[in-house]
Amino acid sequence: MGPLINPWLLYGLCAVGAAGVALALPRRGVSPQVVGAGVGGAGLLGVFAALGVSNAAHLPNLHFYLFSAIALGSALRVITHPRPVYAALFFVLTILASCGLYIVLGAEFMGFALVIVYAGAILITYLFVIMLATQAPTADRVDALSEYDRVSREPLVATIVGFLMVGALTGMMARGVGTIPAPAPGADPRAGLLMMLPGKVERELRERALIGRDDVILTASDGLPAMDLAARTVRVGSPGGAEQRTAPIPADVRVSNVEGLAFELIANHPGAIEIAGVILLMAMLGAVVLARKKVDLDEHERPAAFGPGGGHP
Amino acid sequence: MSDVTTGILTALGGVGTLAASGGDAAAHAPASGGALPAASPLVLLIPLLPLLGCVLCGLCAAAGVRTKLPAWLTVACLGAAFVAALKMLGDATGGPGTHATIAHAFDWFRIEWGKGPGGVSRELVANFSFYVDTLTCLWMLFVTGLATLIGLYASEYMAGERGPGYCRFFAAFNLFVLSMSCLVMGDNLLLLYLGWEGVGLCSYLLIGYFYQKPSAVAAAKKAFIMNRIGDLGLALGIMLTFVKFGTVEYAELFERIRPFVELARHGRFDEIPFSVQLIPLLFTVGAFGKSAQLPLYVWLPDAMEGPTPVSALIHAATMVTAGVYLVARFIPFYVCSDLALPVVAWVGTLTALTAATIGMAQFDIKRIMAYSTVSQLGYMFAGLGVLTSTGAAFHVFTHAFFKALLFLSCGAVMHGFGGQLDLRKLSGVRKMPGWGIVGVCMLVGCLNLSGFPLLTSGFFSKDMILAQAFTTPGFAAIGWILLLTAGLTAYYTFRVYFRVFEGPSQFEPGDEAHAHADPGDQAHAHAPAGHAHGGHEHGHGQGHGDGHFHPHAPGWAINTVLAVLAVCSTAAIGAYFIDRDHHGWVGRMVDSSTAAWEAPGAGHSGAHAEPPAETGHGAAPGTFLGMDPHAVMYYVSAVVALVGIGAAWWLHLAGRTAAATSRADGLLAAAGPVARGAQGKWFVDEVYDALVVTPLWVLAHVFHLLDKLLIDGLVNLAGWVPRGAGRTASTGQNGLLHSYALGMAGGLAIVLVVALFMVKN
Amino acid sequence: MSAILAQADYPALMSAPTLFHYLVVSAFMFGLGLVGFLTRRNLIIMFLCTELMFQAAGLALVAFSRFHLNHTGETFVIFVLTVAAAEAAMALALVVLLFRRKETLDAERWEEMRG
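Output (structure tokens, whole complex):
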């Protein structure tokens, strides 16, 4: 298999994207945001087109393009929108689009968790702080916004640096992604987990009336459920084991994403979960401590805060 | 290397074991002392009492005592030490036969490292124990005795200093006696070295007693540094001894040197290893430094900046004879080298002559005495060199008394005349009221020093050396030079006496009568004019403001001490006549000690019939103009001394009418450059200045510049480079979050790009 | 649903070119987050941009997880989420403190913190 994409074409398209982002960034005077967004989008489109042309047989589905476009477009808006509240809301949109991509990738649990944790919790906190710390623009005028929101800092250099990194990352991934050994076709590393879930198999079989009401999955001599996952059969019988027979496991009875993730987490990363818990606890304590701290206004900020008249209101 | 490490570890372990065993020092004493019997523990009192005195003086200083208490404490302690020394002498000579004994105080060093060849454990043992033989007794006798007397003298002499200075003086005085007793009595070379450095330190402290006087400070430093040169030689000698013989303890050493002595006795010097022959030469360097011999003698005359009692005790009677003691103690080592004794003899002789010539032309009476000390020390070394350690020891013994007497007399004059020491400004002192005793004592001292026949001990001791110089083959030239020196000595000694004590009574007080710093007169020097000196019975109380100065005759303490010393100086003749079979009392003392390498011909009458076979050359004894030296030397040296005294009388007393002028002035003018050279001390100091001090000074400044420019420059450069680099780099540290982030991201991007193009799948 | 979301069809394999699509999206999102962090001067937006970079990383992890047909990547995203949450809590508390002190969110106003 040749390269997924001609690297120089990729670098060129990254440069186009960079130019678009650089144009889109807010700056003093006229800032051609629409033009920038267009150019940037064209660069991205070019990458996908080139990929599609060279690998027509292996394309992601339509949803991918849809969600990617939303995610990247709103991400661009996050970094270009002069109003912080809007930027945060566009970030929510990015999260939602990412969630779509997760679901396309079959990671339903993570997708919804993202929506709940990110869009639901973290971003709301951000919005609170933004609203707390920003004077609400009464008029819908750009001039009323803070200067530091309106004018970005060194857009050109930052974009060059950022897209150097994007170019390098994509270039490397394009070179390396073909070398990753894919799992063999048909071999499902997650299939073995079904052995851990005899209750689920029993329930599924019972719901489909493949076994009787009182039948249970028998236990083999080694203490495991008497399932033959290769043949997708299971030995069932009455609880006493008086009468036994073999029942097939239907193809759609399988380990779901949530179950797989749960096994992975609990079985393989129990320590990491504990540590994550401690981190969250510490963060909470830290936030509480910091929030209780009494802070006075800086000496030279005071006159500005109290207006030109100074003194007490 | 590992051997040494193991040794150190073993040594540490050994120390630990010792500590663990509960310090059963007594159990180790016999082992460390070899086979020598233990001495009476009373011996330990001799160093202990001065230590007690030192501590008590220190306590007096702390308590702010302003009376003469420290002096009385010192005299009491040293007197008791003298009694202990007498007892030690009685023990050492009383029993049948005289054997060295050891008095063990405590273990000092015991370092072992592994086993040497033959399973003998290699160790360094040096205990705080004292080697008592007759030589030790002889030395300790006059050290403690003179220290007691001079302490008494100083109680009056230093009276003007009462207070902290007085305590300091007597503390150092006691410390000196302590160090001297360690030096003389130590049973090993390390203890000797400790004492050696200790006396050097005390000498430094006491020369620099008037530390506000720049000349005193300079003299103290000079003495100390000059001594360091010698001490280096001694230290090297001790190390070589240890390396060569594996021990530093006398008892062992004198056993182990015996085979070499046997070789030397038969003249087979080429079979003695060079390193063994080197040891005495290194010791000699040490001895020359401490005893002010050529070329290291220049510190001694300057050391007269110290108070006179110090000059008398340390720089005339005791400390400077430490070198003589060292050579005498290690005579067995010296005879093992065919070079060491001639070197000692020749250097001693030349020193004697040089110092005598300088002494002839000086005007400062204390300095004349200092040069005469150097000269007489030269005599002693010459005596050792021509193999009459008895003569040398006897001369040390007599010299200690009469030179102390002379110094103390000069000190009394100085004390009484406001620090006046110039013999041109003093005259006829003997006839002044209250100065009679001083005059007589001075006369006794001068007679001794010049070797006046029959009446004086100096005559006999000098005689022994002279006679032996002519007797020992190959040393006749030394004999002639020493004979000449004897004449010069008689001349310059009586030059002082006739100028200062005889003739018309005239005087001119010294500057210290007006200014300060005369140790005795300081109290009134600082007092307002017209103040009466209550503390002095002979107060010259009219003050100095009205232009009158009254000499201040010595009090009872000084007079007593002078009288006692005069008697002792004369009585020392007895030591020559007692026990003639053993070449006199001193001879017996020396013969029964390790210094007993005595040419049998050294004794006078009769004894010289034996040929001095021990010298190993097999040559016949030398003669004096064809006559037996021992027989004729009495008469020859008597004549020489009388001629010297006569010359002094004719040049400096006969017909002299004023203090400042004499017939000698014409002679001086006639002598021209020679006289000027002698007056300028042969410009030795200047030569040293030009040869050593100035080059070192220049070198020091070169190094200073190098240090300043090169080393400091490098160091500063090492500081400037990071500072400049930091200043440049700190422009990036502008506190802007964005620039940091940009730097970080940019760096990461560059790394990624480089990796992208460098890594090929 | 499974017909439309072809790539989610379990346990069908995912091809390397398809994986690369996701990685490109992830890289671009990361780049946008980085550019935003470097250009925006509002402290809160800067933190939002770091969240954007977290998202990009999470997307790549999930894509790899899908490619390898295991859950390790997703597990990792959970921890990324944890760290992001903790960071958001602390960072926002700090931002509030800073804002109280200077009445501004401009990052350039805090240059004295270089010490």
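Residues 269-306 of chain A form one domain.
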